[in-house]
Amino acid sequence: MNMAATPVTNPSQLLPLELVDKCIGSRIHIVMKTDKEIVGTLLGFDDFVNMVLEDVTEFEITPEGRRITKLDQILLNGNNITMVCKYCACLVSLYSRYRLTGVS
């Protein structure tokens, strides 16, 4: 028997798209490449991690101060995403600073 022909898989290993798939229907926190962060409910995504979100809040730091924008639904380009996680208050981020301290 040729051992090289049999792929070894770890059942506890979770691939990135599988992790995102587990978040469908959940609130997620997205950190963008720019000074924006987005919190919303994930409705779906594709292989490029383009995402459809609903009940969205966008947080942005601008030269004039902070800006918070509420949106019903968005299509987010996956190319601009730096990090995605299930929403939680423990993430140190722009959103946490807005919520906890009101720093602009």
CATH class: Mainly Beta
Mean pLDDT: 82
**Biggest sheet features:** 5 strands, antiparallel
**Helix fraction?**
10-25%
Helix-strand category: mainly beta
Strand content: 35-45%
In whole angstroms, the N-to-C terminal distance is 64 Å
The gist of it:
LSm subunits form a heteromer with a doughnut shape. The protein is mostly beta strands and 104 residues long.
Notes on the protein architecture:
With 104 residues, the protein is mainly beta. It has one domain (14-100): SH3 type barrels, CATH 2.30.30.100. The protein has 2 helices and 5 strands; from the N terminus they run αβββββα. The protein has helices at residues 16-21, 94-100; strands at 27-32, 36-45, 51-62, 65-76, 81-86. The protein has a 5-stranded antiparallel β-sheet with strand order 4-3-2-1-5. Strand 2 and strand 3 (51-62) form a beta hairpin. It is elongated. The mean pLDDT is 82. InterPro entries: LSm5 (IPR033871), LSM_dom_sf (IPR010920), Sm (IPR047575), Sm_dom_euk/arc (IPR001163). It comes from Sander lucioperca (Pike-perch).
